[in-house]
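Entry 14. Ran structure prediction on the chain below.
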Amino acid sequence: MERLDHLEHLDKHLVDELAQVARETVREELREQTRKQRRTAMLYAASGAVALYAGAALALAVGLALALGLPDWAAALITAAILGAVAYLLRGAARPNRPTAGGHPAGAGVGAGQAAGSTAPVAAPPTGLGTPYPPMPPVAPGATSTPEPGAAPTRAGTDPEQPHHRA
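Output, structure tokens:
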């Protein structure tokens, strides 16, 4: 019996040692990944800063070219309008749900579970992720008439012993 207690102590020691090695290995791997991601982030930041200066130089060149034939204030105003239009177009391209000609976001037509010609629910959550609740059908399954607004749907004419799915 004493020998089994000794083996149990060795097993516990082995488990603790293995757990320590696993923690160190995971910690080292995370350090390496973080180092790579930090380097990538620094390169993106430097690229953005250089692009900003390149854009400023391009805007200056456009302004100076326009100033050859226009007053300086008009050239600056036209350059600002061009930059504002480009910024607006880039902002629109970055949005996931761009408005279409109808004023509704792209892909907001007939969705899953929505009949053609029906209107989408008006209420939407502030996150913009869709409807906060599933849409209610106009008629409850098995009901013969539309319930009054605010009234609970009834199950008149349904047999509780029959299956509730349709073949």
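Residues 89 and 95 are 10 Å apart (CA to CA). Will compare against last week's run tomorrow.
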